[in-house]
């Protein structure tokens, strides 16, 4: 009996030690990677102009305005449309995706956050209503 407890404890300590060692190794690797990235970006210093010559600003040839290039894959567009349809409760064919841009204000992202919180609350209440325990 005592041998089984000793074996179990030693196995537990060994497993926890291995996990801790791997986590420390990952931490060191991430720090080294951050140093390499910071060093490579720091080596790109701006070019200094000679002090004797004044700089001239040449107007660049005016380029015609270009339409923004879509870099979204069809899977991402489908996921966005599905999320909008799910949140509004409307079928997907009722929506047309015109443009996608990052929300710069907190109000737009707050709506998605509130919707997700309400979804979690409703799922939890449904679970408890079906006899689930806390």
Walkthrough of the structure:
The structure is a single chain. This protein has two domains: 1-43; 74-129, no CATH class. The chain has 134 residues and is mainly α. The protein has helices at residues 2-42, 74-88, 106-129. The protein is built from three helices and no strands. The two termini are 36 Å apart.
How big a fraction of the residues is strand? under 5%
- Overall outline: flat
* Average pLDDT rating: 80
Helix content, binned percent: 55-70%
Key words describing this protein structure:
134 residues, mainly alpha, 2 domains, 3 helices, flat
Please provide a brief summary of the model.
This protein is an all-alpha fold and 134 residues long. It has helices at 2-42, 74-88, 106-129.
Write the layout of secondary structure elements.
Blueprint: H1 2-42, H2 74-88, H3 106-129
